[in-house]
Structures are given as C-alpha cells and as structure tokens.
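Render this sequence as a predicted structure.
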Amino acid sequence: MLKKSELEHIVSEDLADIWNVLSPEEKRIVTDNFVIQQYKKGQIIYAEHEEPENLWCLLKGKVKMYKSGIGDREQILRLYRPVQYFGYRAYFASENYVSSCAALEASVIGSLPMAIVEKLIRSNNDLAMFFIHELSRNLGGSDTKIVNLTQKHIRGRLADALLLLEDKYGLEDDEATLKIYMSREDLANLSNMTTSNAIRTLTSFVSEKLILVDGRRIKILNEPQLRKISKFG
C-alpha cells in the first residue's frame, strides 16, 4: 500500500498536465481518490456495455481500445502510451461503454472516479478545456483512421499500422526496431484485415527489404518507402 506522500508524488509527476491546473484543495481530492492497479498482459480494464465509472490513466505499459464486430472479429480503435487518459467519453455521453480496453503488456494504471472528475470540471474551466482538447484530438484522429481503413489497400493499411506503432511507442536503441511486440492477430486487428492477409503482407514487406521480422520483433529498414506506401495506399 502506497503512503499518501508517495501517491501524491506519483500523481503530480505522471498527471502533470492535469495537476498543474488544480488548486491545492483539488489536488488533495485527487490524491485521496486516485487508485493505482497492476494489470497483466491481456487483462480487461473495462468491457463493452459496462457502465463507465472511472477516468483511467496509463502510467506504465501499453493499452489497446477495441471493439468486437461481426463474428466477434476484433477491431483495434486506439492505442495508448504513458501518460494518456481514457475511458471517460462514455461517461460524458451518458451511455455505457461502446468499446473495451485491455493491457497489451503488463501495465500500471491509475483510476479516479468520474463523479469526482465531473465535480472538478464544473468548478475549474482550465480542467474542462483540457478534456475538450483531448476529446477533440481523439475525434480528429478517428476521422482520419476511418478514411485510411476504408479507402486504403491492404499494403497501405499495414504500412500505416507500422508507422503508428513507431509514433506511439518509439524504437529500440538500434533506432530501427519497434518498441512493441504485437501478435499477428493484433496487427491485423489494427489494420482492419484478416490475420492471414497481415502475415502475407508482412512477408511481402520483408521480401522488398522494407522490414525485418524476428518473431514478434519488427525492424524497419526503409521508412521512407513505408511512408510512400502509406501515403498512396
């Protein structure tokens, strides 16, 4: 169990973008109600149709937001990296979750009851603007993703996915290997294609010397060409 001083340090460091707009009393409310939990790889954080109760903040690890479609086929909608907030849109919309979230790897996640977040927002315009900004950015990203997934061919969609993973999670010390190891199924679900198509397209990229694949490790060899494929779809 964390001491209050330790929790306050973690909150002030990791939630700096929110922390900096709070008054001393508001900071006390946040630290008194902020709960930190550990999640195993694959563990569900919240599920579709559940009632939204918490603002979630990824402190360490990686998280995917996804939705089950026809035949329970999964579509990854968004990826999160530290430190990002998620799970609050449904609360503001007064509806149950329309998607699910799960840990892509062992992760540390903090939560704060949305009822408390709402009270803080109603009395703090800067905090309200923070969430308006976050929601607006997410909406813009979703609009772009819809166009990419519906209009680009398989090669363009997979190139998009690889570049997104680089942007979200960065590269290893060799400045080429993606700092995330996704299953072929997850990569397919991110790219809106079947797993077999994802495998074939990865193999094609390898033969063209665009990437190097070693198990779940993917090394980008020719980023300019990948970006060209992504752009022209």
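Summary. The longest strand covers residues 54-60. The two ends are 50 Å apart (CA to CA).
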